[in-house]
Specification:
GO molecular function, one term: 2-oxoglutarate-dependent dioxygenase activity
Number of strands: 11
Pfam families: PhyH (PF05721)
Protein name: Phytanoyl-CoA dioxygenase
Helix content: 25-40%
CATH architecture of the largest domain: Sandwich
Shape: globular
Largest sheet: 8 strands, mixed
Number of helices: 9
Structural class: alpha+beta
InterPro entries: Phytyl_CoA_dOase-like
CATH class of the largest domain: Mainly Beta
Distance between the termini: 35 Å
CATH topology of the largest domain: Jelly Rolls
Organism: Croceicoccus mobilis
């Protein structure tokens, strides 16, 4: 792991690929963990399932977040030997995606202009299957430096299971785009979700309609597409931008998903703090 090169790539391009970062056993462990979790959990979103606050809700992925090699990768990416784990962690299954930045609506995860040199909040994307077909993560190099969602210079990042991608939360990116059928299903799903929100609380569904997800799942099977899983979590340099992101992102997740948990399970917090990582929310002695 060339720390200087990682940091240079993050600063200049906004992303960096670390090939063969995870072992085959680690990939399989994560894949099984997510598959089992989503059998009964997660919320229907973007024609798949998502679970935010996953560091607290899905404790079996904690070994990844606190792995010494993961911590070292974030030290390199942030240029900070004592980075901050923001608490943000999402796990996904079979979702489609469009172009966006992970700065929140209207860049609301920050209390000030985040397109400055001081902002240094980095996400790790872990895809648990091969994506050499252009359907993994696509990014617009250098777009972390401007408030612009243009994607004319986008590149699809080929990755294999075990590779990880570090990227600035401000970079313009997307996951797998939907085809024509999927985009039609997504429109129907969003309409259904809006209707659901108008129902009394006792009748209100969680997320988008399950019937649309069933159609999407059947469509995947017809095309021979296997289920896809991914993990995303965020560290940052120890500064005010990271503190803003941590506070506002976690507040959004807890509010949106009616999950007020802010206690990490097991040994995740001490495992990180033992390596010099600050953990949000910080504990006061």
């Amino acid at each position: 792991m060339d720390r200087a090169q990682i940091r240079q790539d993050i600063v200049e391009q906004g992303f960096c690929v670390l090939p063969r970062f995870l072992t085959t056993d680690e990939v399989e462990r994560l894949r099984l963990t997510l598959a089992r979790f989503f059998e009964r959990n997660g919320r229907i979103y973007n024609l798949g399932k998502s679970q935010p606050n996953a560091a607290m809700v899905c404790p079996d992925i904690g070994f990844l977040i606190s792995s010494p090699k993961v911590v070292e990768a974030f030290r390199a990416a942030t240029g900070d030997d004592n980075p901050v784990f923001t608490g943000h962690c999402d796990i996904h299954q079979d979702m489609i995606s469009d172009w966006h930045k992970d700065t929140g609506h209207g860049h609301g995860y920050f209390a000030e202009d985040c397109f400055t040199d001081g902002c240094n909040v980095i996400k790790m994307g872990v895809y648990l299957q091969d994506h050499v077909d252009g359907n993994g993560l696509s990014v617009v190099p250098g777009s972390h430096l401007a408030d612009d969602l243009g994607n004319d210079n986008a590149v699809a990042i080929p990755s294999q299971a075990g590779d990880v991608i570090l990227f600035d939360v401000r970079i313009t990116h997307r996951g797998r785009p939907g085809d024509g059928v999927e985009k039609s299903l997504q429109k129907a799903s969003r309409i259904g979700a809006r209707i659901g929100k108008s129902l009394p609380a006792a009748l209100r569904p969680s997320g988008e309609p399950a019937s649309i997800l069933a159609l999407k799942t059947g469509y995947d099977r017809l095309r021979g597409i296997a289920s896809r899983h991914s993990v995303f979590f965020t560290f940052g340099a120890d500064n005010r931008f990271t503190a803003q992101f941590a506070e506002r992102n976690m507040a959004r997740q807890q509010r949106q998903w009616a999950d007020r948990s802010n206690a990490y399970p097991g040994t995740l917090r001490p495992d990180l703090e033992g390596q010099g990582v600050h953990v949000y929310p910080r504990q006061i002695d």
